[in-house]
Design brief:
The complex is a heterodimer of chains A (about 110) and B (about 110). In chain A, about 0% of the residues lie in helices and about 60% in strands. Chain A has strands at about 5, 10-15, 20-25, 30-35, 45-50, 50-55, 60-65, 70-75, 85-90, 100, 105-109. In chain A, strands 2, 4, 5, 9, 10 and 11 form a 6-stranded mixed beta sheet that branches. A 5-stranded antiparallel beta sheet of chain A has the order 1-3-8-7-6, with no helix packed on it. Chain A is globular and about 45 Å long. Chain B is about 0% helix and about 55% strand. Chain B has no helices and 11 strands. The radius of gyration of chain B is 13 Å and the shape is globular. Chain B starts with a strand and ends with a strand. The chains are: A mainly beta (about 110), B mainly beta (about 110). The interface between A and B is medium-sized, with 24 and 27 residues.
């Protein structure tokens, strides 16, 4: 079992829909990251969370430390949101990020 | 300046070639990383430099040779690669080597022919 699990693996939505991507992890963490990767491109850090909730524009990220679960929400989705969304966790100490396998989102106009 | 700049963006090389990938950041970050990413897979860590010293080598074959000439630059020297080494190579940096708040470059898409 992977230490970081994301669901769904693939998601197709109509423009304007509210989207939720989930991430569960099984290890102790110091922070959880949501990353965005467009096709063929580099990775953009969207959020780093250690508790609670963060909002940036149409993106909202939440984390429940007790349940070891995080969600990324996109409101009023748009085709330009189409990308792979990756959940990654930082573990305590100088240990590498553990990445989930990503959720491939396609938003159709 | 909150960018990590990688050059070149695309590289095609033969199996007998020697080439280098470059990565640069001017955020004063003291940790820099090389990742390899195959299609539809998450990134895999290759190397970590912490304060210009190699601190993690994830059992990467010696045909990949990292170099950190100074705190702003990170190179990856490539020699005698195999077609299966074709991938997106991502550089990242963070303030310190705790992997928090890493900034990623756009990557170099490498094709070995």
């Amino acid at each position: 079992k992977n230490e970081v699990e994301q669901s769904p693996q693939n998601l197709t939505a109509q423009e304007g829909e509210f989207i939720t991507i989930n991430c569960s992890y099984s290890v102790g963490i110091s922070a959880l990251h949501w990353l965005q990767q467009h096709p063929g491109g580099g990775i953009v850090s969207l959020f780093m969370l250690s508790s609670g909730k963060k909002k940036h524009g149409r993106l909202i990220a939440t984390i429940n430390i007790q349940e070891k679960h995080s969600s990324l929400h996109i409101t009023a989705s748009h085709p330009r949101d189409s990308a792979v969304y990756i959940c990654a966790v930082s573990r305590p100490g100088n240990t590498p990020l553990v990445f989930g396998k990503g959720t491939r989102l396609s938003v159709i106009a | 300046d909150t960018e990590v700049t990688q050059t070149p963006k695309h590289l095609v090389m033969g199996m007998t070639n020697k080439k280098s990938l470059k990565c640069e950041q001017h955020m004063g970050h003291r940790a820099m990383y090389w990742y390899k990413q195959k299609a539809k897979k998450p990134p895999e860590l290759m190397f970590v430099y912490s304060y210009e010293k190699l601190s993690i080598n994830e059992s990467v074959p010696s045909r990949f040779s990292p170099e950190c000439p100074n705190s702003s630059l990170l190179n990856l020297h490539l020699h005698a690669l195999q077609p299966e080494d074709s991938a997106l190579y991502l550089c990242a940096s963070s303030q310190d080597p705790t992997f928090l708040r890493a900034f990623f470059g756009q990557g170099t898409r490498l094709t070995v022919v």
